[in-house]
Protein: Glutamine--fructose-6-phosphate aminotransferase [isomerizing]
Organism: Roseibium aggregatum
Amino acid sequence: MCGIVGVLGKSEVAPLIVDSLKRLEYRGYDSAGVATLDQGKLVRRRAEGKLRNLETLLENAPLAGSAGIGHTRWATHGAPTVPNAHPHLAGRVAVVHNGIIENYLELREEIVAAGAILESETDIEPVAHLVNLALDRGKTPREAIAEVLPRLKGAFALAFLFEGEDDLLIGARKGSPLAVGHGDGEMFLGSDAIALSPFTDRITYLEEGDWTVVSRTGVEIFDKDNRPVERAEARSSVTSSLMDKGNYKHFMAKEIHEQPQVLGHTLSRYFDYTTKTARVAGAEGLKFKDLQRLTITACGTAYLAGLVSKYWFEKYARLPVEIDIASEFRYRETPLSEKDTALFISQSGETADTLASLRYCKAHGAAIGAIVNVAESTIAREADMVFQTIAGPEIGVASTKAFTCQLAVLAALALQAGRERGVLSAERERELVAELIEVPSLALQALSCEASIEKLAQPLSKASNALYLGRATNFPLALEGALKLKELSYIHAEGYAAGELKHGPIALIDENMPVFVIAPHDAIYEKTVSNMQEVAARGGRIVLITDARGAAESGSSAVSTVILPDMSDIVAPIVYALPVQLIAYHTAVFMGTDVDQPRNLAKSVTVE
Ligand code: F6R
């Protein structure tokens, strides 16, 4: 993960670098640092923890210089301490890095044997030393970089600054994204368009294996074989304004409450409200009509959106779905051919495992579709067909509105697939679309249960463990509820298919175990209620999330009930996601954890 930035500016660059890092903090917030050239000499400031610590440091001890690099870190190698914070210096070289250098141990041994003294436990400090050793042997900066880059195994986006070279930045990318920003007499490097958004909208994305030599007047780009290459300049539409929380205490609260609106935007992009049909532009490239199976790959919450859609594709389109988490899929060597279609789901569009899986499928000839929120992301750029979620920027680390918007797009794709495969009648499609169109209004009504959910936070905060149960499309939602609770409140939680409970996990049930049962009154409601009774009989403290009819028919086993409006099956997993998110949110707020930036996490997971 980590975010990197480099600036060749007209005046002092440290404040510009900090401004860019604020936008990159979604990539990690374990430490941050800036290095500049003050009259040709490398100087730096680094601070542990959030960026505001670095800002305070820079207020007390500003950095001069019109050339600099900066970094916000998600720790991989070495604890989040100042010595491990980037930029790393070695002699005349400073470097910032996003990614993992896999052969760093070998490189460490080599440079220690050469007499270097290492300050950090990181995988990148040896690289700075290797470049410095090459400079000591009389190489120019670009010769030194050309010599060292082929020796690095793993994934990286790098930005180098050199002592005495006030008009030079060198960047390189392999596996992790890096872009060049073009200014007027100024030039920039950054992890993505968001990092560059305060400076310019003229962006060149480096391609895999590229490296670049940047000065204030121009940029040269080389491919992995050191051949000069041209890469197109694009206009970025990423807004430069920093997102604010509005009247909300946290981004997450704002994003939960934005869902009725952004679901409306996303649904209206993919459904025709007049004809009540799914109308997904570009879906023909997914070849639904003759497809034997659809492969879906994603991570975390995005994977759970995919898991919900498996039920939809199989039920409404009779299309078998093979779904896996990307970190497993990428190494499974799944047989694929040009007859296959692979669908990837990612909010950020930068998740390393999802991207690697996409590349695997592409290399095997499959048609590639991607559901992404960030339109200019790497996954969006590498997919054959992009279906954007219109969720707007999601800043809270825990995904909320991106998840429900992913579901909205997936529902459209499933219905379109059903129609194209001739298994979904026009009438049934109209009924289902009519139900889906109601989602924004149902989501708004669902938010009115917030006060009752807030009351659950205090008792839940005392628990060490929690269980979430659901069946069919509510099973992935149970997994999502447990994931959200874990990441925000640090309470251990598990999601289970309700019917699976008696095959093991029921042994965990006692009077200290909160059990959330997600059970709208649907065709299998009674089955879930039976599982609920089994929990109640063993003293489990049940919170039932259901509708009025479900509440009336639940017996007296639940200690609390959250009542949502009535809704159809296809709509339920989208709308029921909201109370599930609110439970985790309010518990975290009650416990005083860092809701928008939970410990150890980052919004964009660009390392595997
Ligand atoms: C959980 C969460 C993560 C992400 C996962 C994938 O709340 O946000 O599990 O869903 O890291 O990220 P994207 O969607 O950016 O690929």
